[in-house]
Amino acid sequence: EVQLVESGGGLVQPGQSLRLSCTTSGFTFGDYAMSWVRQAPEKGLEWVGFIRSKAYGGTTEYAASVKGRFTISRDDSKSIAYLQMNSLKTEDTALYYCSRDIITITWGLENHYFYYMDVWGKGTTVTVSS
Amino acid sequence: DIQMTQSPSTLSASVGDRVIITCRASQSISSWLAWYQQKPGKAPNLLIHKASNLESGVPLRFSGSGSGTEFTLTISSLQPDDFATYYCQQYYSHLWTFGQGTKVEIK
């Protein structure tokens, strides 16, 4: 069974840092891209960013709201994805989910790669408050 | 960024009703659209990817259609378990965006 378990959330003050972990099991972690999505209290879903598998460069993409402050990384040997959050703001308060991403490739003169999120963890709560 | 707009924001319906939720993209996203269902206190659950591909295990009363900028999620006969919030999400751009959600309530 595919499982994703987020951890590392908590209460921090503005300007501080926090690292979230997404511990996975039930699939070959290294074959998949992984994403982070957040949901502020009583609000909708906001994509945070994702990291491609090493086969596709292991590169990352971020939402504008977190770019330069948040960093996604992965440890394929441990099947864990991380979200390092620096310079936290009160507006970063949210439930943070990680997800496994499925790749679809369109083949042509130039190949294009599209990912969607198929399995999600239950989330970990981050509260930024003074 | 590509903006995704869902309508309506809230929908009141009865068991057995046919329900249609619309999602519009600010530019063409071809068919690179997913639909998720979220129940209170739970993580989102993938229903449909690539606009119309039903995820394994999802009831056949759910269907998706559309391409370009206009998409719909249809529930053919609403069941008690379907009262939830539904989100569309584009993955055409490498900067993914969600719609604001549509809450399906009991009438």
Give your account of this protein's structure:
With 130 residues, chain A is mostly beta strands. In chain A, 0% of the residues lie in helices and 55% in strands. Chain A has strands at residues 3-7, 10-12, 18-25, 33-39, 45-51, 60-62, 70-75, 80-85, 94-106, 112-120, 124-128. In chain A, the strands form 2 sheets. In chain A, strands 2, 4, 5, 6, 9, 10 and 11 form a 7-stranded mixed beta sheet that branches. In chain A, strand 5 (45-51) and strand 6 form a beta hairpin. The relative contact order of chain A is 0.30. Chain B contains no helices and 11 strands. Chain B is mainly β. The relative contact order of chain B is 0.34. The mean pLDDT of chain B is 97. Classes of the chains: A mainly beta (130), B mainly beta (107). The A-B interface holds A 35, 37, 44-47, 50, 61, 63-64, 97, 102, 104, 114-123 and B 1, 32, 34, 36, 38, 42-46, 49-50, 55, 87, 89, 91-92, 94-101.
